[in-house]
Amino acid sequence: xxxxxxxxxxxxxxxxxxxxxxxxxxxxxxxxxxxxxxxxxxxxxxxxxxxxxxxxxxxxxxxxxxxxxxxxxxxxxxxxxxxxxxxxxxxxxxxxxxxxxxxxxxxxxxxxxxxxxxxxxxxxxxxxxxxxxxxxxxxxxxxxxxxxxxxxxxxxxxxxxxxxxxxxxxxxxxxxxxxxxxxxxxxxxxxxxxxxxxxxxxxxxxxxxxxxxxxxxxxxxxxxxxxxxxxxxxxxxxxxxxxxxxxxxxxxxxxxxxxxxxxxxxxxxxxxxxxxxxxxxxxxxxxxxxxxxxxxxxxxxxxxxxxxxxxxxxxxxxxxxxxxxxxxx
Length: 329
Known about the structure:
Layout: E1 5-9, H1 15-25, E2 30-36, H2 42-49, E3 53-56, H3 62-68, E4 74-77, H4 82-94, H5 100-121, E5 129-134, H6 138-141, H7 150-165, H8 167-170, E6 173-178, E7 180-181, E8 190-192, E9 197-202, E10 209-213, H9 215-228, E11 235-238, E12 241-244, H10 245-256, E13 260-264, H11 267-274, H12 282-290, E14 299-300, H13 314-320, H14 323-328
Parallel strand pairs: 1-2, 1-4, 2-3, 4-5, 5-6, 6-11, 7-10, 9-13, 11-14
Antiparallel strand pairs: 8-9, 10-12
Helix pairs in contact: 1-9, 3-5, 4-5, 5-7, 10-13
């Protein structure tokens, strides 16, 4: 019998990591080592019950990662920004201070974690594939115009570090860029009680194209394709559907049976009226002006992969939704 290969999945209870772990748990020739900060959580225990080796890992400590990555043939890495950012921002908000400091500190934490992971992965002699979950480069893709999103800056700084400082690891690396999550606020309108219509009030244009993905279900199949069937060096835009915002509104209305309309606004208005930080607003401006993948050289879309990755389209997910429950919530 051929020995099983080992994939190490970081953030294994998160939206992306859980999908990767669950996908590889169904493959008899793979063993899954699921990294988490809380091995006793219900989600961690669920993975363990299905056969995963659940391991605690501290990404600020390379010695912790050395044990976690030991004997890995593949590693899926998704670094964390928001779990650092939001508590810091809440503290700054309470003091009525600008939120930019939270972004900078979260940037420092994420880049340190990513570099530590890369440094350790580079020492694993058994490693064949390293898959890093990256983000569109808002700053690079806009020529520096949209440079306030530290979550984008951090992800791309880590990828650049791997390429320049760990060239041997870079030769084993593929990058995966997830589309907008299905639970993203841009895909979920609000009811206007006066008109009875559902309003997509967005700092985008109707013709702005947005890749859409259900990460808990689709990231795993895409990562499996990168690990098993594709050579290293792929930069994959992972999505279930790639629609204009006008198409999103039409599909949502058709599936829900409710009248919906697109109402354009600006990021400046949202920032000033609602207080949404620029950390979250450079992305829409970048996507509208330059496109979702601007600044990424050699991006590959799902139809360009060697084998078809079977995922459910956004339109099918809408049609299968129990709208009586969703609209009543």
